[in-house]
Amino acid sequence: MKDLSKYPFEIRPLSKKEGGGYMISFTDFSECISDGETIAEAIENGMDALHETIAALESLNMPVPEPDSGGSHSGKFIQRVPKSIHARLVMRAKQEDVSMNSLVLSILAESLGKREKV
């Protein structure tokens, strides 16, 4: 079993609507999340979940990501935008005769490239 303390994680507070407390997620495992009433409890529960996730992957002879490797990201994310921006994206995609996904991907890539040059 790998050293669990080497895996980076993120903790965020959960809103009252989400049930309160804190959620922990591991950047190397998109499928591994947990929560707790306190930060300490979220970390403890998260480490248990991480242990079980790694054990399950190993039992299925599936690869286990190395710590801080970026893990197994699906490449998919969902983003809500104001209706006015959505309408502008739809119009621009039609003008350029591309899908909206292709358009947004190119806009993101161009923006990231500009930021990296700074």
How would you characterize the overall build of this protein?
- By secondary structure, the chain is an alpha+beta fold.
- Helices cover 45% and strands 15% of the residues.
- The protein is built from three helices and three strands, in the order βββααα.
- It has helices at residues 39-59, 83-96, 100-117; strands at 9-13, 22-26, 29-36.
- A three-stranded antiparallel beta sheet has the order 1-2-3, covered by helices on one side.
- Helix 2 (83-96) crosses helix 3.
Percent of residues in beta strands: 15-25%
- Basic shape: extended
Widest sheet: strand order?
1-2-3
Calculate the terminal CA-CA distance, rounded to whole Å.
41 Å
Order of helices and strands: EEEHHH
Largest sheet: 3 strands, antiparallel
Alpha-beta content class: alpha+beta
Number of helical stretches of at least 4 residues = 3
Low-pLDDT stretches: none
Fraction in helix: 40-55%
Find the count of extended strands (DSSP E, 2+ residues). 3
- Rg on CA atoms, Å: 19 Å
The overall pLDDT average reads 87
Question: Top keywords for this entry?
Answer:
118 residues, alpha+beta, 3 helices, 15% strand
Layout of secondary structure:
Layout (H helix, E strand, L loop, with lengths): L8 E5 L8 E5 L2 E8 L2 H21 L23 H14 L3 H18 L1
Antiparallel strand pairs: 1-2, 2-3
Summarize this, please?
This protein has helices spanning 39-59, 83-96, 100-117, and strands at 9-13, 22-26, 29-36.
